[in-house]
Each structure stands twice: as C-alpha cells, then as structure tokens.
Amino acid sequence: MLAKIPYSKTNDYTREQADERIKLVSSETNSNLHHISQYSFDPALVAGNIENFSGVAQVPMGLTGPLQVNGEYASGQFYIPMATTEGTLVASYNRGMKIASLAGGVTTTILDDAMNRGAAFIFKNAVYARDFGKWINDNFESLKTISEETTSIGKLKDINQYQVGKIKWIRFNFTTGDAAGQNMVNKAAHRACEWIHTQKPKGLEGFKFGTQLDSDKKHSLINALTVRGKKVCAEITLSKELMEQVLHTTPEKFFKFKSISTLGAYIGQAVSNGSHIANGLTALFIATGQDVANIAESSAGYYYGDILENGDLYFSITIPALIVGTYGGGTGLPTQRECLEIMDCYGAGKVNKFAEIAAAVALSGELSLASAIIADEFVASHDKYGRNRP
Amino acid sequence: MLAKIPYSKTNDYTREQADERIKLVSSETNSNLHHISQYSFDPALVAGNIENFSGVAQVPMGLTGPLQVNGEYASGQFYIPMATTEGTLVASYNRGMKIASLAGGVTTTILDDAMNRGAAFIFKNAVYARDFGKWINDNFESLKTISEETTSIGKLKDINQYQVGKIKWIRFNFTTGDAAGQNMVNKAAHRACEWIHTQKPKGLEGFKFGTQLDSDKKHSLINALTVRGKKVCAEITLSKELMEQVLHTTPEKFFKFKSISTLGAYIGQAVSNGSHIANGLTALFIATGQDVANIAESSAGYYYGDILENGDLYFSITIPALIVGTYGGGTGLPTQRECLEIMDCYGAGKVNKFAEIAAAVALSGELSLASAIIADEFVASHDKYGRNRP
Amino acid sequence: MLAKIPYSKTNDYTREQADERIKLVSSETNSNLHHISQYSFDPALVAGNIENFSGVAQVPMGLTGPLQVNGEYASGQFYIPMATTEGTLVASYNRGMKIASLAGGVTTTILDDAMNRGAAFIFKNAVYARDFGKWINDNFESLKTISEETTSIGKLKDINQYQVGKIKWIRFNFTTGDAAGQNMVNKAAHRACEWIHTQKPKGLEGFKFGTQLDSDKKHSLINALTVRGKKVCAEITLSKELMEQVLHTTPEKFFKFKSISTLGAYIGQAVSNGSHIANGLTALFIATGQDVANIAESSAGYYYGDILENGDLYFSITIPALIVGTYGGGTGLPTQRECLEIMDCYGAGKVNKFAEIAAAVALSGELSLASAIIADEFVASHDKYGRNRP
Amino acid sequence: MLAKIPYSKTNDYTREQADERIKLVSSETNSNLHHISQYSFDPALVAGNIENFSGVAQVPMGLTGPLQVNGEYASGQFYIPMATTEGTLVASYNRGMKIASLAGGVTTTILDDAMNRGAAFIFKNAVYARDFGKWINDNFESLKTISEETTSIGKLKDINQYQVGKIKWIRFNFTTGDAAGQNMVNKAAHRACEWIHTQKPKGLEGFKFGTQLDSDKKHSLINALTVRGKKVCAEITLSKELMEQVLHTTPEKFFKFKSISTLGAYIGQAVSNGSHIANGLTALFIATGQDVANIAESSAGYYYGDILENGDLYFSITIPALIVGTYGGGTGLPTQRECLEIMDCYGAGKVNKFAEIAAAVALSGELSLASAIIADEFVASHDKYGRNRP
Fold it and tell me: Who contacts B48 (Cβ-Cβ below 8 Å, separation ≥6)?
C-alpha cells in the first residue's frame, strides 16, 4: 500500500510542502526526483492553478520567427515561443514562418467569438419543451442580467436551442474578455439555469448541466459550425515564383494535393483537412500558459485554397474553436507570462492579438508541412532533426 | 524589423547558444526573460527533441494518487504526476482516483495496437485502382519486408484500403514497440510507397503521401473505428452504497444522466460522450514527455455504462487512439523521465503498462466530474480551487 | 444504336405520345411492355410532374390502421396508405399502429419549419466575407422583399451564415405553406443571390449557387441541427403492462436495448438511432405523391426514451428533416390525391396535419420493429410474411 | 371510431378482398377511391410483397436514354425507366445521359459487394469481449457453415468487429447473389448469433440483434467506409470542347465549383458531395421494384474530379452502398419486371449489370445538374418543366 500524498490545503503552496510530497513519492517508489523540484518561482504563485503542487515539468522551448502578421489586432513581426519535445516541429514551423514572411506575411481575421456552456432541460413532453424555446427568447434580457451577476467580464451574447423529444438543450454563448473563460461561463450559465428552474417554466421536470451540447474539451460539429473561443481565419497569397523557388512545388500541384487531402478528410471524417494544426498550437499553448487540453477543440480547422487569376495560390486556414486567453488561467505564471510578453500579449486587451498570432502560427506550419510532403522532403527532414528516434 | 534568431545547427545545444537567443529576443522585444532560462539539465540532452532551444516552460506539477489499477500490464497502486495550469483539475482527478481505489480499482484492457500512415495512389481509372487492392494483398509479404528495413522495431501488421474514383488510399498499420512510433511509421510507410512505385502496378500514375486517411494529429472516425496508437478500455464497478455515500448520487441517476449526455454527444457529433478525457491525459502527457499534440486524437473516447442485476453501476471508457510511448520522443528528458519512473514506466517493455495507467487516469476523471455535475457540486468546486479566476 | 426516345414538348401529354414511346422501346429492346401502359388517368394530368411520360409504375398499396394521433393539427383516428413491394413492412407498421392506438395514441408536435437553399459568396479575403455577414443582417428586410417577389406563398424566415476562408455560405430559410417548397425556395433564393450581386457588397468576387450547405437530397448534420422541411416529434407512453402483454418485453429491457443501439449509432455515425424510419416514410411518400428522393433526408431521426417514475416507458422519435407537402408536386395526381384524401390531408392548410401523421407512422414502425427484435420475433415474422424471398 | 381493416391472411390476395378494404376505407372516410383500385394484374402476384393489399399507387414513368454504359457487366446502350412525380427530374437526367453518351459513355466498376447484419455481444468485462474477437476469427469456418444453412445463395465473406467497453459488435458480411439480400442476411446472421450463444464463449452474457452497427435503412459512416450492397464507381472524361459547347462551362470552372461544394459538404457533414444522387436512383428504384427505402443509404456518394494533363475533365461518382437486386423483392411484379427487362436486367445473373447501369444513371444526373448550376441555367429549367408549381 502506497502512502497518501498530503493534500493541498489553503496556504500550503510552499517549497517545503512541495518537497515533502516529492520526498514521499520518491521514497515510496524508489525514484530519484531531482529535476522536478527545480523551479525558479515561489510556489505561492501557483495557488489557483494546481493542487498538490510538487514541482514542475521542464518542457524544452524553442524561440522561432520573426513571423510577419497582418491582422486587425496583431500587426508587425513577432517571435514565437514554442515548447515541445518533438524534434523537427520547431524547425518546420520556423521554416513556415520564414516563407510566410517572405510572402508578405499572414493576414488574420477574427470571425466570431463566444465561450459556451449549456444544459439539458427536461419537460413533461415535447410541446412544453418547444414552448420553452419561446420562453427563453422572451426572457433573454432577464437571463442576461442574472447570468452576468456572476462575472464582471462575461457578457451573454445569444442562446442556441436544440430539441430532441422532450429535452431542450440550451447553449449559452458569452464573450469573456481576455480570459479563455470556461470557468467564468460555467458559473454564469449555472446561475442562469438555476434561475430558470426557480421560474418554473410550464412542464419543466428538471435540468442536467453540461450534457455535451456545449462540447467542452472535445471536438464537436456543433462547435465547428458555430464557435467556441475565437473563430479565426489566417490567409496568405503565395506567388508562383515563391512556390517554385522556396517550396519546390507549384500552385497547381499544391491545389491538387489539397483537393485529395480534403476528400480524404471528408470520407474519413477527420476534424480537419489541415495537416497538423495541433502541433504548432500545442507548443504555443504550453509555452504561454493556455489550457492545453483545449487542443482537443482547437486542433480542428479547415483549409481552403484557390488559384487566383494571376496564377498565385490563395491559402487559408479557419480555426472555429481557438480557445485562448491572455489573462487568468496559467497566463500569469513565470515562464508563461514571459512568453506572452515576448509577443506583447500579456494581460488585458490582448486576447484578440494573441488569437491572431496563434492562427498565423498554425498557417505557417500548414504551409511548411504540406509543401514538404508535396516536394517529398517530409521523411528526409524528420530524419535530419529527429535524430534520436528509434 | 526584428533580428533573425540564430538557427539550430549540429552540436549547438549549449547553454551559451540558448542564452544568446534569449538575450536577442529579450533585447529586441524589451522583455525580461528570466524564468525561461532556468533549467536543471545540460541542453545537449534535448538535441533531437527541439530546434532553436532557448530554455524551458516550467509547467506546475501535482502528484496525485495512489490509484489502484488492475490491468494485464499495470497491476497495483500508482502515483500519477500531472502537469497543468488549470485549477481544480488535479483535485478533481485525485478525488476520482480515491473513489476508484475505494471501489477496488480500475480494470484496464488493451484492445488493439497500431500506428498508421498512408498514401493516396492515383490510377488511370477505377478498375486499375480496384485491382491494385488485390495487388497490395498479394504483395503483403514484400511490403512487410521492405517497410521493416527502415526500423528495428516496427512490424507491419495489416493494410487497410479505401477507394473513391480512381484513387486508392492505402493505410499501413504497424506495431511500434515502446515508442509512440509516428516517425518510425512515416519512414517505413514511405519506403513501402516508394517501392510500390518502382514496381509499376498497372495503371498507376503517382501517389501522394499522407492525404488524411491516416489522420495524423487530428481526430477522425477512421481512427475511432480502427485504432491509432493503443485502443484501451478502462472499467470499474461501483456499488450502490459507494455511489450514494461518496458520489452523492445513485446508479440510476448516473445512468440516466449519461444516457442524455450520450444523446447530446451523438446529435452534436462530439468525438466523445465522456466528460473531459482531454484534461487528465493532457496533464499526464505534459508530465511524461508524450507528444502532447496527440491530445487531438487521444481526447476522443466512448463511455458505456450499465446497471448490473445487483443494482451496481458498470462504468467504462474506451479510448480508441491513445498515442503514448515510454521510449524515444520526450520520454528521456529529465523531469519527464522522472515522472515515468514514478510509475515504473520508463523505457523498454513499459508502453502497455503506461497505456493502461493512462486509461485508468482518464476513467478517474470521468467518474469525478460526471458525479460532481450530477450532484451539482461542479461549479462550487471550481469556485473553491480556481480561486484567482476572473 | 438504339433510337432516340421522342422528347417531351409542350402539350404532348397524350396517350398516343406515351404509347409511341412504349412501342419504340418495346421494339428496340424486344420487351413486352404491357403493364406500364395501364393507367386510369388522362396523361395531361402529369404535365409538370414528369417528362417523356410513357406510363406508370404500379406499386402495390396496403391500407393500414386506424392509427390514433393526438397532435396539434392531426387529431383522431387515421387509415394510413402505404405503397411498397417489401413483404412484412405493412404488417409490421400495422402492428405498431395497433399497439400505439392501444396505448392511447401518438402525440405529435411540430417543432420547427423551414425549407432552405443557399449559395457560397466568394470574396477577395476573409475580412470582406466577415463584414458581408453584417451586411446580410442589415439588409434582411430588402432580401425578404426581393426574394418573396418570386412566390405568393414562401416567406423568408431567417438566414444562416457559415464562413471558411474568404467564402461565406448563406443559407436562406423560408416557410413554404403547404408545399414541400424546394422549387419555390430555389427561385426565391436565386433571386436574392442575384440581387446581392447587383448590390456589389465590398470585396465580392462572385457566388456559387447551392454548394451543399443547404444539403438538398442528402442528409447533413447542418440539416439535422437546424431544420429542413418540418422538424417533428412523435411521443408515446407505454405502460409496463402493455409492454409485457403485447410487446413481450419490459420498459427496462427496451431502455437498455435502445441505449446500446444509440451507442452503436453514435460510434458508427449512423444518421439515426432509430430502427427503420425510412421504411414507413418511403411507403407513405410513394402513396401520397411526395418527392420520394427526400427519403435521403427524412430517414434521419433521433430516438429518445426514458423510464418514468411510475415505471412506464416514454418513447419518442424526432425527425429533423421531414419534407412533405399537401399541395403541388405529385400530391394532385389521381392515386396520390386519393391517398391524401383518406387522411383528409389534400390541399391547402393540411401540411402540418400530414407531417404529424407521418411522424406518428414513423413512431409506430419503431415501436413494432424494436420490440420484435428485443422479443426475438424479428426473423420469424419476416419468414412468415416475406414468403417468396430467396 | 374507425372500423378495423380486414387483415391479410394466407390466400386472401384477391381483387374481392382488396376491393372490400377500399370500400371500407372509402365509406369510413367519405373518400372516392377510384384510381387506387385500377391495376392490371392478379393480386395473387403480390403475396409476399405486401400485406393488406388494397390497390396500387400509379407513379408516372418517363422513358429516357439511350445511355451508353461501358462497364464490366453492362456494356452498350440502355433506355432507362424513371418513375417520379417531380417535374424536371426526367428532363435533367435525360440531358445528362445524352451528354454522357456524346462523351463516349460512362465507365462503371463494381469495387466491392456485401450485405451486412450484426449484433452486439455483451460480456462480463472487456477482456472477455476482446478475447471473443479471437474466438470469432478462430470459428470463422463454423460460422460460415452454420449461417449458410439458412440460404442457398448467401455466402459469408468476412466479419468485422468493433468494441466499446464490454460490448463487442459483430458485423457479418455476405454476398447475396442477385437479391438485395437484407432478409437473407437477417436469417443467416441470426442463425450465426444463436449458434454463438449455444457455444457459450467465455464471459458471454447475451446478445442484442441489430443495434445499429449494420446500419440498415440509414446512412452511416461505417457503411460508407466499408460497403453495403454494391460499392460502385462511375467515371467519365469530358473534353474541353464538349464542356464548352454543350455544358456551357469549362473544366476549370467545374473543378473549382466542385472544390467549393466538397468543402461545403465536408463542413456541414453532408453524406454526399454529389448534387442529387437520390433523385435519379429513387426514380429508377420505384420503376424497377427495388426496396425504395434503401435510398436512405444509396443516396450517399462521393464525387472526385481531376483536370487531366490534356485539359480534359475527369469526373467520377463512387456510391458505397448501392442496394439493388434483380431477383426477389419487388423485381418480379408486373410493371417492375417490365422495366428491368427494358435493360435486360431481370432475374438471375443480372445484378451487377443493373448496379452498373444505376451508377451510370447517377453520374448522368450529377453531370447535368452541376453543369446547369455552374452555367446558371438551373432555376430557369425548373421554371420551364415544373410548370404547375406554386
């Protein structure tokens, strides 16, 4: 029987307490846990970010760029910090950023913005559930007032409805300022649900919070068709010459390759016809203190390309559920905050800027990998950089 | 114009080179990058894991458990290291592990195992493409020999085929020992594709590597219906008494709640009817040097539950694409290796054990969150632990 | 070389012209085409319904019922005409109707109503496409006026938007009175698109009509999450006693069976977790002159069931894209009109009534087949009725 | 209260009995049911095809073609009978057939062939369920022998497996000769399941027949990725000149249009990126006595196109679940058999020929509608032919 790990209590975020946990586990498992204990900050800082604090994972970080971004919020050149243990990833994205910058930079646009949480309201029958839909619309202003009492930042934007049988799913959509906002929205939506319950809409039997139509921590088609976090588009135009000289391919070859990839994604129902959005965003998320589990949602994205009349290639990536924050969560922790500051993206008023940069990073990686595959340089470059792989 | 970051070259994994990058970026962006530079290992260690190495992300780690696992490879009690910046996550999983252990532990089973890579072979017409399918079957042994020349570990298991029009997608499935194996399989599959090309099957016009039916770094239904990485099942039986006393709910309430959740996941086409598999696996992946971007795939999972004849609740989670390794990738880095060693999961012969533990962790989190939502303790517990949220 | 079939021209809907075609094909193919030529109406009646009119398919029809429907538009007992060539189908639905009536009848509710058509508007870049979304909202009243000029019946209800890259898909939703309305909506939406084009919204390069986000003649998740045609729910409550005595099963067994079926539908991404909605609706559609190809969309539907506190079973089917009409299309043809008249569903003001009856028919079939499978009487009953099968 | 309709009993397929039903319903509902009673055959013929036989639906039929098909089974010119009540449909398909024939005809290929039925086997735990998978493989020959005892035609081809938790879904795939084969496969699979049950595989608790992974009468991704019925491909090459002169478009415009349509189908998760496969197949199915409800499955299909090096357009449609028969079901009924005979497709040894013709018809309709939309002639042609629409 292994001993219990001393559990987090208020005000116990001290190096002593952390070391005690390390010592216990070390002794119980005969492990030498030297490196986990090496960190450069006061544990008091992580109260609110973790329980049972014991040390850190040191995740290698590469600085890349500069990347030229031409957005509405992010405009200029940016260095991009990427934390990963996967060889070639940084090299590949760095190459993509170089090419993107050569081509004049990545244009970025925020298309939509909302964080969602919902509940299933269960009625005596389908008529009550349907009429509740009208009740919701009629009471929108009250729901807005009530739910916003729980937050100084979140604003109720609109409410979606879906009905099956006697169940009406309600999905509340909030803007959440510079926070990713899942917790903020949890509280606000929960308050709204409780208030609805007290109002006794006709035929209501009860409600179940969550129940998946808000699709937290998992991709869903509802998220992709609407928005979760930011819906962001990154675009670039690549001249024929650049594609030939730098990417060793042509707009036509690229277009055909992606047309087959899109068909492949479609028939296999992949959540993205992009190549590897997950790679770059994960490395950026770890570096900047994002909720990395949201890669489950933010890794989905749609490529669309076109050959323009002058023969150049239009190339875009649209990410429907990019969940990011520049305030709250892990963004204020030491290395994470430094990474945000490199891009001048820490704190209030920066989340759209950061979302645009993230989308530009994703596009850079798509550009790099897709062209490497087309030019058949993909396996060779992995051989070069991923040297110690089995 | 920002200055270029000195690019990784062979043998430049030194603290000097890393600091030079930090200094440059610090100076160009007027940032104070103190913490990123704090790491406890020789940068030479991360050659092969990252390019442009500049420092580390320090991700807070919580030690949790012990968790009782009753698997075919993992049997006994385990402490679980989790690296995250999301308050409440560790507390929630820790609670789940406690309950799971109280209930006798989590039973784990590896159902299937393969890493995949494919290509689209394009023919003159659909007849050639169809007949190529037979050619592939007839040449399986040659394909096995050829592809396995690139690896001492990977073994070609079988080959899937899908045809649309004159395109035949081929998906090679390999076992990859204790490595997650994406790079291994890239090389082996690429070699097989090149060999096919030299054999000039009738009517072949060319092939495009990748093209999405292997669904790398993105969820797809093909992955979910077959396997990518390990397909693992975690199961537990919860007595009526335990559910009432500890989870403050009943088997019947739980069953109904999940039946509505499953319907919600189905109609919104969420990739999981589980609650938040992504949370626990992401924290475990960061701690143990996994390729965290694979959360895109590994976050999908299926809950199935049943009320047994004696009234107890059967509860299971099946994860069809759990992509993990205990050798290669980031597993050998300092903090990462220590975390694997805590569970005696570092190195050769350990990957199935680690996959089973990971599935047990996922189940613990499902247990904890679902029951908190049902007992309506969800928002309250986030308030308690996620204290500094906006 | 086969001879050309004389092509339909205005006013050629005569028996002579039809017989000439039959004679030609008969002679060219050495076939004896006696039965096709047997019809009981003046061919002039089918002008507007078919070109190259040559005769009829005689599809066997069974009269079933009575079925008790308790809807907002359909209230009372109805005989149901079903045209099919599949043995057992009529018997199975008839059994379901009997049981449903015994249980007090099927309660039906129309949840939503719209026929859709759309187009992809292509812009110079994503910003223009996004801002066009606002333009559409600002110009809703103009779009309504313009589009409704093409129809005396259709009313523009709302407009959905979806953006990927520089493409903005617009989906116009109309109510269409008693017609299924696809053609009506085609014209109205096309007029709206042309008008938009003349207004030169900033950055617009062109539009492509259709392009799949309206999902005509095919199931899509967009249709299922919104509505296409009528979204209708049919519900019934089955007492424990009835289930045991008549269906030879119990609420608990039924509930568990459907819980596994729903999981099966979810993991295989079937468009329905119902058993065979397509069967009953197809037979009803053929009998009543509906556009039978819409079975592609109308066959999708969601089962949701619950065990009530008193132990009875709540059972519902929600069909999100039931496309029906009681006016226009084939509804006025001789046998088709007679079938509608049997249910007092022919002509103006009847479409909601007919939609409710159709949903009640679908539920009857679900009830019958699911309980037959559970009681393991399924294969036996097919043996009994499908006598001449190989 | 409406009177009960006299129920079908053995040997009651007489005109007297049918008329009695008509009279009863006519009298109870005050309807004049003249036309339903007009049919040209002895009701004894429809025993096994319908219960409660009362008359017929007379569905207008248009003869179209000739269509040039260059298949492995269908080779030459064919007239195509289409039964529909939707104006423009026949004209549109006829135009497509003309163009297809002008272009040298449609090349057709049967890619795969199987009818499926399955069951969920439920075990004590996931280990038993997994090991049952091996048991199934080891007992394949016995399962083949046992299941084939129920049919002189069906042959067990292979067995798919899918596991979630302690449930193992088994999907039996049979070839079914010239019958569509759903009933044949029901019986054979049911026998196999019962036999498995008697063999008491370790840990088996029971099985549920059906449960959706065979996806009968509904589209599913499992069907689309594997096969249900015939998987058929139809291909054509259209010269630049033909496209310009006859279709009033160009290969480039067509290619781009379909690339946007495919993206639209992908993001909305439509089951087809084709335009309206359902239309032509439904009309053909009604005419030829197919099980029309299978349009639920057969309406799904994948377009893939390419611009060839000489600038011509390659155009293909792949239908993964074309469910057809030329023997059994409704194929032997009077008008239905005549329609099959027009194409020399009635009876034994003809099913592959018919499947190829059906796919060629589907391609003709795609060609016609897509080019009409691109050339913007779509709404105009509906105006012309669908004259009596509201």
Answer: A87, A385, A386, A387, A388, A389
pLDDT tens, residue by residue, B277-327? 999 999 999 999 999 999 999 999 999 999 999 999 999 999 999 999 999
| Contacts B–D by Cβ distance under 8 A | 89
Give CA D62 to chain center in angstroms: 20
Average pLDDT over residues D169-196: 96
Which of A227, A259, A260, A316 is the best residue to mutate to test the D interface, defined by the most D CB atoms within 10 Å of its own CB? A259
CA–CA gap between residue B224 and residue C267 (Å, rounded)? 8
Residue C306 carries which side chain, given as an amino acid letter?
D
Distance (Å, whole) CA D78 – CA D344: 9
- How far, CA to CA in Å, does A387 sit from each of A93, A291, B116, D387? 18, 30, 21, 71
Q: How far is A326 from chain C (nearest CA, A)?
A: 24
**pLDDT for position A263:** 96
The helix (run of H) or strand (run of E) holding residue B129 is helix B126-138
- Please return the burial class of C134, using the count of CB atoms within 10 Å of its CB with bins 0-12, 13-18 and 19+: exposed
- The string of DSSP codes covering A293-319 is GGHHHHT--EEEEEE-TTSPEEEEEEE
Residues of D in contact with B123 (CB under 8 A): none
Name the residue of chain D whose CA is nearest to A308's CA: D256
Distance, in Å, from the CA atom of B293 to the CA atom of B301, rounded to the nearest integer, reads 16
Say which of C21, C84, C299 has its CB closest to residue D63. C21
Q: Residue A57: phi, psi to the nearest 5?
A: -90, 130
Residue among A47, A49, A23, A46 nearest A36 (CA): A23
Mutate which: B111, B202, B266, B277, vs D, most D CBs within 10 A: B111
Cβ(B169)–Cβ(B207) under 8 Å? Answer: no
Dihedrals φ, ψ of C304, to 5°?
-140, 130
Contacts of A267 in chain D (CB under 8 A): 224-225, 302
Average pLDDT over every residue of A353-379 = 90
User: Are B266 and C265 in contact (CB < 8 Å)?
Assistant: yes
List CB contacts (< 8 A) between A109 and chain C: 125-127, 130
State the pLDDT at residue D47.
Answer: 94
Active site positions of D, annotated: 86, 291, 382
- Cβ separation of A29 and B328 shorter than 8 Å? no
Residue in C with minimal Cα distance to A227: C162
User: Who among A263, A265, A267 is closest to D224 (CB)?
Assistant: A267
Bridge-based pairing state of the strands B106-123 and B53-71: parallel
Which candidate, D39, D69, D93, D46, places its Cα nearest to that of D282? D93
- For residue D334, is the peptide bond before it cis, meaning its omega torsion is within 30 degrees of 0? no
- Distance from chain centroid for Cα B113: 13
Chains touching chain B through at least 3 C-beta pairs below 8 angstroms are A, C, D
Task: Answer yes or no: are the C-beta atoms of B281 and A295 closer than 8 Å.
Answer: no
Closest among B303, B311, B283 to B295, alpha carbons compared: B283
Are A262 and D262 inside 8 Å of each other by CB? yes
Q: Which DSSP string do the residues of C302-318 spell out, in sequence order?
A: EEEEEE-TTSPEEEEEE
Considering only CA atoms, which of D381, D360, D386, D384 is closest in space to residue D371? D381
ipTM > 0.95 (yes/no): yes
Helix/strand/coil for D264? helix
